[in-house]
Design a protein that fits this description.
Oligomer: single chain
Strand order of the largest sheet: 1-4-3-2
Mean pLDDT: 93
InterPro entries: 3_dmu_93_MTrfase (IPR009725), Glyas_Bleomycin-R_OHBP_Dase (IPR029068), PhnB-like (IPR028973)
Radius of gyration: 19 Å
Strand content: 25-35%
Number of domains: 2
Largest sheet: 4 strands, mixed
Protein name: VOC family protein
Order of helices and strands: EHEEEEHEEEHHH
Low-confidence stretches: none
Structural class: alpha/beta
CATH superfamily of the largest domain: 2,3-Dihydroxybiphenyl 1,2-Dioxygenase, domain 1
Number of helices: 5
Distance between the termini: 51 Å
Pfam families: 3-dmu-9_3-mt (PF06983)
Helix content: 25-40%
Amino acid sequence: MPEGASRPRVTTCLWFDGRIDEAAALYTSLIPGSRILERSEYPPQEGEHPGGESVPEPGAPLVIEIELAGSPYMLLNGGPHFTLTEAASIAVTVEGQEEVDRLWDALTADGGAPSQCGWLRDRFGLSWQIIPSRLNELLAGPAAAAVNAEMLTQTKLDIARLEAAAL
């Protein structure tokens, strides 16, 4: 990199079809050390988007930049052209069953849905992995195969059951 040049900034952009104010508020309220950084709005426009749908109202959110525990994300209110899938997820490693339960319950509430092995989809369609740090320790141990087999039977991860499988 040339001297005096700034480093590139890398941010994950997540495409939504509306409700990014609500999503940003929820995500930053759940993950400690998180915050909303910037918000931009759709300017006044006329006509239609190239895809044929109408232009959002002026003042509707266009982009909201957030940090989740120091990691940057951009929420784009891009319309219905693309949808969120499990091909991309936010993985959150937490300490203890209480924190697994807290995040799981909040993210599956109001239309979210559990999946398998600690994965879920929130009410906006974004996929998350809620991973207790103890799982990583157990998977690095001598009973990794038994722990992995137990994990594959679970939706929300249960630390006690994972530890029992390691015995």
